[in-house]
Amino acid sequence: MSLNKLNALLLLAVIGCALSVVTSQHVSRRLYNELEKEQKLQRQLNVEYGQLLLEQSTWGAHALIEKSSVARLNMLTPTQRQVHVITPEGVR
User: Fold this and answer.
1) CA separation (Å) from 80 to 10, 35, 36, 71, 73?
2) pLDDT digits (tens, 9 = 90+) for 38-64
3) Do 52 and 60 form a contact (C-beta atoms < 8 A)?
4) What residues are paired with 90 via a beta bridge?
5) Residue 75 DSSP one-character state
């Protein structure tokens, strides 16, 4: 093999390596940008989840449920005489 052919082959190999490095860097940057977007979305969803948990605990508060049942459904807390406890043996 002559020196010119060897130089041409080596030049092609160097160009091929350079193109593969550029391509891998581009793919790496694109994937990193996607990762950043997904992490930002994760942070937003975590904030929203925390807000929903807070809202759920607010709506589940006993006093709020009792107030809502009295106002909307005209329900009242039963007196001691109105409460009947049922056991497997019968009514007490």
Assistant:
1) 97, 61, 60, 22, 21
2) 999 999 999 999 999 998 888 778 888
3) no
4) 87
5) -
